[in-house]
Input
Amino acid sequence: MDPNMTSNSDNNDNIATPEHTPQLQAFREVVESRRSVRRFTDTPIPDDVLADCLRLAMLAPNSSNLQPWEFYVIDNADKRKRTVKNCMNQNAAKTAARLIAVVARTDIWHDHAQQILREYPETPVPKKVKDYYTKVVAMDFLRGPANVVSAAKWSATQVVRRVKGPIKSPYYTFEDTKNWATNNTALAAENLMLALRAHGFDSCPMGGFDEPAMKRLLGLSNDQHIIMMIGAGERADNGIYNSQFRFDQKQFVHYV
Output
């Protein structure tokens, strides 16, 4: 076990751990030892390790398995130099072994819905699955010219709520779709950071960056949104700036 992966065992002494969950302690150690590391050593992250971390990232839960994410691993020397500048020359960017742009896409739901039907693990594809991806998903996202479809969806949703009861709100606007893509992609980003920790490396999610400049550097479109930059590498001795603390759990958890 990595010497940095020390667990907060004092908080867990009173929690019963069933014998059939031996992975629980390892999971705790990964989560509790993950920190936002600001300085990294010169130790590289092997390509196969990074590939496994990205594979685990993409196992994150996501809406309808539409997977609206992309990961840009910035290895080119010139692009890396410009990326560090676009990340405000933060130490987490300057010293990182790898720099990764985590991107949410708002334009691929239809293509991915069709790809799911082509690659579905059961053949023939069940009718309810076909109907879901060709009808339900399409209606959920379609907005139409000047949002005319969105207006119709809004009216229909209000009627259904009054007559039949609860119904999921569809995506009426571009911002709705952007929030959907961002939320799903953030789940994958967390998986990526935990996977790096499990492999003995660390990360720092950076929100302080020039997104327009980064989008130009990576050649991204208006439908691709960088939700964070991640610096990754081996934790340096002076890589953590402050002690970790959180507010009391009772402040945030409500049983109703």
